[in-house]
Specification:
Length: 251
């Protein structure tokens, strides 16, 4: 029986992952507070404050700054305080919606940004559902079986954190998730429609413990499976709660 293995959100796009035990989802929405904020760089011409959805190339992220992949996050929804940790930086606690705190965060992250890349310069809050890579309000679904198969080809156990997914499922067959595209899937109390495969980027080549590139994930996917896809996008069509170990049914 397929069940939920792990749940994650990423309060600031590309800047830290937060593990959850349960989440409530609604149609037309992503995980609450997932990619609620993003970090614009000085080549994007995006100002601080609330902004409509924009393409990922406007923001600092792991594909261009691999060290960001080693960051973890802990957002307190009640207080609005966000705690970030990185192995090469001191812990920081701040309110992303406070301008002074946002500037302090930008200064905090600068030391781990590559010198040959556009500099991070503004913390942006997303209008609507979030600054996801896709303009659609999708939730990402990955499986531990596919990760194990990819890890076997790589010759090393890879962490699920490389793939920055929302929902991880266990007890499926490797790559079975691609057969769900166009189908509905019930996860816990929520119903989702699986829409598209997720084409991966250079962020997945970075080790989420060290922030250093160490596995050619895109090459492995292309050489062994003829594509660079890992995981699938799904849209919520019936609201509900999803928790760890909840059962999963493909309809």
């Amino acid at each position: 029986m397929k069940t939920v293995a792990a749940l994650f959100r990423h309060p600031i796009k590309g800047h830290g992952r937060q593990e959850l035990t349960h989440v409530s989802v609604d149609p037309g929405q992503i995980f609450p507070f997932d990619r609620r904020w993003a970090v614009a760089h000085d080549a994007s011409n995006i100002a601080a404050g609330p902004q409509d959805w924009a393409q990922c190339l406007n923001f600092s992220r792991g594909a261009k700054a691999p060290s960001l992949m080693a960051m973890t996050a802990d957002l307190d929804e009640t207080s609005g305080q966000l705690i970030l940790n990185h192995p090469d930086l001191p812990e920081i606690t701040f309110d992303p919606d406070n301008a002074r705190d946002a500037a302090r965060f930008i200064a905090w992250v600068q030391p781990i940004m590559p010198e040959n890349r556009a500099k991070s310069n503004a913390l942006v809050r997303a209008n609507g559902y979030g600054m996801t890579d896709q303009k659609h309000p999708y939730i990402s679904i990955n499986t531990t079986a596919s990760l194990a198969d990819l890890s076997q080809k790589a010759g090393t156990d890879m962490s699920m954190h490389r793939f920055r997914g929302n929902i991880w499922l266990k007890n499926s067959e490797p790559w079975e998730e691609f057969n769900w595209i166009g189908k509905t899937i019930r996860i816990g109390g929520a119903l989702l429609k699986v829409e598209d495969p997720i084409e991966r980027c250079l962020a997945t080549t970075s080790n989420p413990e060290t922030g250093r590139r160490d596995v050619e994930t895109l090459e492995l996917l292309q050489n062994h499976w003829g594509h660079k896809d890992f995981g699938v996008f799904a849209a919520v069509i019936e609201p509900g709660s999803i928790g760890l170990n909840d059962t999963v049914e493909v309809l």
